[in-house]
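Field reference: sequence -> structure
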Amino acid sequence: MSLRDPEVNIPSVHSWKTHKRMEKLEELKKNLNVVLLIAQRMLTVRAYMEKRILAEGTGSSEKKARVVAAEVSLNILAPRPSLRALTYQGFSFSLSEPLTFHDRIAKLCHEKFDNVVADIPENLVGRKVIAGIVMETKTTKTFDVISIASGTRFIKGAALTTDGHVLVDSHAEILAARGMRKFLYYHLTKLSKGEKSTVLQRIEGEQAELAPDIQFHLYISTAPCGDGAIFTHSSGQSEEEHDDSHKPIFAKNKQGLLRTKLEQSEGMPPTKKVRESHQYQDMNNVRRGERLRVMSCSDKICKWNLLGMQGALLATQMKPVYFSSITLGTFYNHGHIARAMCCRLEKGCRVPSLPDGYKVNHPLLGAVSRKKNPRRSVEKSKKLCINWNSADECAELTNGTTGVPNISSGFAKHKGYSRLCKQGMLRSYENICRSAGLLELVKDDYLETKNVSKRYQRCKKSPI
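Structure field:
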């Protein structure tokens, strides 16, 4: 089986000749006429077939508009092929046979992504990073993708708001994790209504927890930004197989530091140590031009391996949920990834006593197998981000730089804000608390509501 990198290159006008549907398409293309429209500094290419409008494409240049129109026409005139040719961050390679555990996790995620984007009419040409979360049910030996996402952007400072209606971080792994939380909300709602859940269980008088036969596996098509990617890029990928033990690399003082995504910057500067009262950026300063800082994906995953990925709100209702494995598509170096994902939490110190249920989680780490080093290709990424989870069923398209849904796509369920934004999560949490008769847990302020989970906050501030 051949896989291309999961920043998935959706079949584009440039790749028509590589698809079996080319013969049928060539016959249909003979009947296409193209009309060029110019309006508001944007060019629109309108494709006609038998005197009717077949598709339109808009872009800042005629070439870009033609690519969009051709892509839409292609999806209409010929069936979309399987996206088993996957694209990770602009690199391509082939899987080794037989498939390993990590290969199977990647394959499941890409097949699900294929199915999700097949129903999306938007132009998806361009480099993408995808991430997915797979649920394993041990008793039935089944694996199901419960959340999938693609995205490479985060919000611009000018688009940031204080009402929680925008998505701040739209990197693929962050969107996938938020989609998983929606999945957990769905099953918590079932428990609060007295219904049975196959994923969660609750012993009377205690918090909900995962059923004993349930595990979750995280897949990312490339190394997460920050500590996990910076040194892997410079040190290269490792091919060696590892058992469950982690062998982190701590060769330089800069390795293992917290890092931030910085607005309008290609770098990942280390986070400066500041007093707790100054750890948040001031909105007024951001609006005046201070560059927005967002926690790197490596740091967020590391945080999940201590606090659980359920987040502070769900921590009042359920015990921590940890990933059992993390699979990368490319840019995998065991020593650097082990350090970035979890092992730096214990560097040079004894782990303090953590609240009940919390721990430093060391998931199984691995990468998609490959017969040769990945071949690099350069292609621009787009602002368009996609998220899907099995609780909501339909896909949602958002703009990664504005943090709001792409309304024109018809996939925005809530007008004006994403279902994965803070406000959306808070409403889901409020509904659960209302069903359970625990509305006193919902405060007037979002941060105050998060602080209700005392054990979560105590673990977060533990001196690790």
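Note: Residues 20-80 form a domain with the Double Stranded RNA Binding Domain fold (CATH 3.30.160.20).
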